[in-house]
Design goal:
alpha+beta; seven-stranded antiparallel beta sheet; single chain; seven-stranded mixed beta sheet; 21 strands; 12 helices
């Protein structure tokens, strides 16, 4: 069987590429349905892009690599596509856009675009051996217990990373890259909860509070969620992509207030109140009870000297914590690292040394922040690869 373009992976990037790669496209996936990660994203409503998308919202060894794709197919382009299909959406905080109804609307939109382009979709199909004779790829596909040999001029790898293995993630893209001499930046989990081996936060499981979480020199102001195993919530997921094993993080539990001055003022009017009672105005009561033991929060507010209040506020504004690890790929929303962008053209996503071989989406060493950025990278990288193939660029 011969096709012009074979796309491995019917996820966000793969389907986007299939809709734009011109005639003769076959897109395959091992799953029973396309777009499974789209379906479960955003609580089932798919945080499909972010109005503030820019290259600065991505982690990559080459910080300039994503600029070309993101500028050529923007968040506004995808928003227009969504609206053209009559999909209602709304904006939440920080520029995050969600479907009003269901993430399945995005999947159906992409399937419609693929159908309009004439792309053929094979599900429950596995990838076997891949060979290249200098001009064409020969790929063994296993479907319905039969091995089918497919010859193609263009091979697009959109199989994602290693995150959420229960969805079928295998790291196949890295194996294909190694097979063709393409560099791979060591993958690791990103946007993932952090755990503590001593289960110290188990009594706080379910408590959430606004915070400023910091890893290294980057900080995010969002909410924090205590879990049975450690810390989660948007702020922690964000900094997890910048945190490395063994490092310390800092958590500011009162990022929006000058707590020291407020406590000093309260000492005059509410000095007879217990220190913990006053702190519960600014923090969840269960968290204050927990910190009472850790920080020795005893006595009334009037009993606290300026120096003591300053010490307490210093800890609350820069609580030093050292996670023992992350929850790993099991719950990671994305995979950091991946295909080395030094080996790819930023304008086409094609491997420089292997004409016709493309890597797109999460497989590539381009990882966005939490909030719709990774989907936008999928749309943008898939679009530029598809456009390159359709235009006959090599």
């Amino acid at each position: 069987m011969q096709v012009n373009t074979l796309i491995l992976g019917a996820g966000a990037a793969g389907m986007m590429a299939a809709a734009h790669a011109g005639p003769g496209v076959l897109i395959i996936d091992h799953a029973k349905a396309p777009g499974e990660k789209i379906r479960i994203s955003g609580g089932g409503r798919c945080n499909f892009t972010n109005t503030g998308t820019a290259a600065d919202n991505f982690i990559c060894q080459n910080p300039h690599f994503a600029k070309s794709a993101l500028s050529r197919y923007t968040q506004w382009d995808f928003m227009s596509l969504v609206s053209d299909h009559g999909i209602a959406w709304h904006e939440k905080t920080l520029g995050q856009l969600f479907c009003d109804n269901s993430a399945k609307d995005i999947i159906q939109m992409l399937l419609s675009e693929m159908d309009k382009a004439g792309a053929e979709l094979w599900l429950k199909t596995d990838v076997g051996e891949i060979h290249h004779d200098g001009s064409h790829f020969r790929v063994s596909l296993v479907r319905n217990d039969k091995t089918i040999q497919v010859t193609t001029r263009n091979l697009v790898v959109a199989t994602g990373g290693k995150s959420i293995p229960k969805m079928g993630s295998t790291g196949l893209a890295y194996q294909i890259a190694t097979r063709f001499g393409v560099g791979v930046i060591e993958p690791r989990p990103g946007l993932v909860p952090l755990r503590f081996s001593d289960d110290r936060f188990k009594p706080l499981a379910g408590v959430s509070t606004p915070c400023r979480a910091t890893a290294g020199d980057i900080s995010f102001d969002e909410s924090l969620l205590f879990t049975h195993r450690g810390l989660s919530g948007p702020a922690i997921l964000q900094i997890s992509s910048f945190w490395h094993e063994g490092e310390q993080i800092r958590v500011n539990l009162v990022p929006e207030s000058d707590l020291l001055e407020q406590l000093k003022e309260a000492r005059h009017s509410s000095g007879r109140k217990a220190l913990t009672s006053v702190l519960s105005i600014y923090l969840p009561a269960r968290l204050v009870d927990f910190l009472a033991d850790e920080l020795g929060l005893q006595g009334n507010l009037s009993d606290q000297s300026d120096a003591r209040l300053q010490d307490i506020c210093q800890v609350l504004s820069a609580w030093p914590l050292r996670p023992s690890g992350s929850e790993g790929y099991r719950t990671a929303e994305v995979t950091l690292g991946g295909i080395d962008t030094d080996d790819l053209s930023s304008k086409t996503m094609e491997v420089r040394a292997v004409p016709g071989l493309y890597f797109i989406g999460e497989a590539v060493d381009v990882t966005g922040w939490l909030g719709g950025y990774n989907f936008q990278w999928a749309w943008s990288s898939g679009w530029v690869a598809g456009q390159s193939i359709a235009a006959g660029i090599s």
